[in-house]
Amino acid sequence: MKAGVNKQFLLLQGKPVLVHTLELFQQCDLITEVILVATPGEEDYCRKMVQEYGLTKVTRVVSGGRERQHSVAHGLAPLSSECEIVAVHDGARPLLLPSHLTKVIQAAGAHDGAILAVPVKDTIKEISGNGQVKSTLERAKLWAVQTPQVFKKGVITFAYDRAFQEGIKGTDDASLVEQCGFQVQVVEGSYENIKITTPEDLDFAELILRRRG
């Protein structure tokens, strides 16, 4: 973002991106507890933000790890024994629709896990190391995966324990779960559920929120 600050803390309609994201979970009746995984050194800043915006469902702020997989593991560690379903979400995805959050949680309850995804719009080509086209993939079978990714607690904790024991690295949480033989249900999401990554994304998010009113 070249903004000199973590992208989750950039302002979107006067509030940090992260606050927009956390408010979605704060307002969902199916969510009872939120564990916020913060970049090391930003924990106190996150705690102040949580208090300032009245995000009472955030029960803990924990330090992240070297890679995303380590950070998720840090978030799983303090889960309460009463927890049945775990939703893993990117702090920089503030445009998740409440209805889609509900749908993917309900789908995870009926399966081993569930993820939000959308059909890809563009033709996808596999290329070789020298930049030549190797093949054109069948677009009808390709979906772009988003978050939240939601799983039964026993499923996600088993998958992460196995991953660290066997040195497995996954591109997302669902890939670790899939490698254990569990079934992951796809729930169609929205193309608006973007991850804020570039300055253009922030402009796009402003337009979407303005349109939503």
TrEMBL record:
Swiss-Prot/TrEMBL site (Transition state stabilizer) positions: K7
UniProt keyword annotation of Transferase present: yes
Residues with site note (Positions MEP for the nucleophilic attack): R139, K195
Catalysis: reaction(s): 2-C-methyl-D-erythritol 4-phosphate + CTP + H(+) = 4-CDP-2-C-methyl-D-erythritol + diphosphate
Biological process according to GO: isopentenyl diphosphate biosynthetic process, methylerythritol 4-phosphate pathway
Any GO molecular function: 2-C-methyl-D-erythritol 4-phosphate cytidylyltransferase activity
Keyword Nucleotidyltransferase: yes
Superkingdom to which the source organism belongs: Bacteria
Pathway assigned in UniProt: Isoprenoid biosynthesis; isopentenyl diphosphate biosynthesis via DXP pathway; isopentenyl diphosphate from 1-deoxy-D-xylulose 5-phosphate: step 2/6
CDD domains (UniProt xref): CDP-ME_synthetase
Keywords associated with the record: Isoprene biosynthesis, Nucleotidyltransferase, Transferase
InterPro entries: IspD (IPR001228), IspD/TarI (IPR034683), IspD/TarI_cytidylyltransf_bact (IPR050088), Nucleotide-diphossugar_trans (IPR029044)
This enzyme's EC code(s): 2.7.7.60
Protein family according to the UniProt entry: Belongs to the IspD/TarI cytidylyltransferase family. IspD subfamily.
Function noted in UniProt: Catalyzes the formation of 4-diphosphocytidyl-2-C-methyl-D-erythritol from CTP and 2-C-methyl-D-erythritol 4-phosphate (MEP).
Protein name, UniProt field: 2-C-methyl-D-erythritol 4-phosphate cytidylyltransferase
Originating organism: Formimonas warabiya
